[in-house]
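Forum: Protein Structure Q&A
Topic: Joint prediction for protein chains with partners

I've read a bunch of threads here and the consensus seems to be that you should model interacting components together rather than docking separate models afterwards. I'd like to see that in practice. Below is the full input, 580 residues plus whatever partners are listed. Could one of the regulars post the assembled result?
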Amino acid sequence: MSSELSFIAALRGLAAHPAARHLDDDCAVLEIGGEALVLTHDAMVEGVHFLGQQDPADVAWKLVATNISDLAAKGAEPIGALLGYQLGDGDARFVAGLGEALAHYGAALLGGDTVGAPGPRHFGLTAIGRATCRPVPSRGGARAGDGLWLTGAVGAAMVGLEALRRGSGDSLAYRRPRARLAEGIALAPHVTAMMDVSDGVLIDAWRMARASGACLAVDSAAVPLACPESRRAEALRWGDDYELLFALPAGATPPVPATRVGEVLAGPAGCLRIDGELVESGENLGFEHR
Amino acid sequence: MSSELSFIAALRGLAAHPAARHLDDDCAVLEIGGEALVLTHDAMVEGVHFLGQQDPADVAWKLVATNISDLAAKGAEPIGALLGYQLGDGDARFVAGLGEALAHYGAALLGGDTVGAPGPRHFGLTAIGRATCRPVPSRGGARAGDGLWLTGAVGAAMVGLEALRRGSGDSLAYRRPRARLAEGIALAPHVTAMMDVSDGVLIDAWRMARASGACLAVDSAAVPLACPESRRAEALRWGDDYELLFALPAGATPPVPATRVGEVLAGPAGCLRIDGELVESGENLGFEHR
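Posted by a regular:
Agreed with the consensus. Here's the joint model:
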């Protein structure tokens, strides 16, 4: 039937509230009592976002980390989370991993719902954080002349998943991703735009270009890899690394370790340039949620 | 495997946050900037909470109404919601019903996530409201001597589901439940305990008894029915009506239409008395989420 994008476009037409506004596709900011709360919700489904045979503690960790990563991209410090949980095998392991991850990021479990149902396991988490910087960064603020930067490296989750499937080698980066929380909070006052790379550097850069009404030029050779050089093209299209992609005014340098991977051009608006070549659609750039 | 209750008990041991506290099993209160936010999350799964052939607009309505009902029981006015949505047939109808329900309850769609996955459809909603009354009512405050009251009647959803399955008759109460939002806000300053009846009057009264450390005595003949008298025993064990069950100090009368259905006794703590007969466990009292 419909794709994620058309569904989200339809949702955009729904009711508004004076205290709340959308921030990017997936986050909202709620102004309350002089504070700004950042809210996000991410789901994970067996066979789509994790393997059925994975340790439920790792699945829980990743569910928390992916949501905290959304808060990190907004420079928000975590407060808590609500869980949607489908009961099944390994519930105690799930609770163990959930507790580890929540403690690691300083978030409380605020509530949730459990369901007993057949079929692939579904888990959802809503994370709530407090903005440390106003205005709260979004992916929509990149301006011509800005430098484009990336924390860390990509490709680790890709080779991690392969190790997990193979049953040998280091799969930690896939199983237990780390949200760049401290980096996001340090960067928030300086960036013109920021987002976490959940679906791949290229597709997420394309989304930042669209949201900003600018053209993002990516120098693919500049992107640091955590996998063999021979797999660069794949690694740029692979998600799950949860690094932060951000734009900084020309001449500015980031307060945390990061690599300059491109620049922001005036146009064509909403397009990506990969090594000089213009890309007008998001197809074949990374993971899409359809 | 584990049941809902043992899972929730395990979750209770997880990390806390100074600004947040649990309120009952499913809700949290977040104190921020002098305001109190109420947060809740409810999920719905095809084949468990709705029929596969149902109009997705009705499913969306119910997803919103069940969450708003949790806010109503806390006397909170809705602000917004985050959606976890599994893409599939009827996405446009789902958006239509979601929009109707959110507009009806004055809530904004704040964000969410979409997933493409096989198997029964899963939807989750996190609702956020602003408390209108402090302390925020919980199910845990019923005291010996209080009267036990219920808004509206029960059994309508039960006969509504039967009509829907049969393909004739009025199924509206099952398909489009109404959250008692105005009633909850009016009641909040007066109640000692309040909860919405999502799983059945008897099991939810038992839960209120457990949370309050009191004994709730229910006069089953006093409970108003929206179904034939011959089905009273079933209707008291059927969920999905979303009426409010609340305790009021002796002699107080509620500011909204409601029926006195029993009283609160000192003990045995955590027990239910149905027409004088003591019930010590929640078994066979209504719907359980395992």
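The domain at 147-279 of chain A is CATH 3.90.650.10 (Phosphoribosyl-aminoimidazole Synthetase; Chain A, domain 2).
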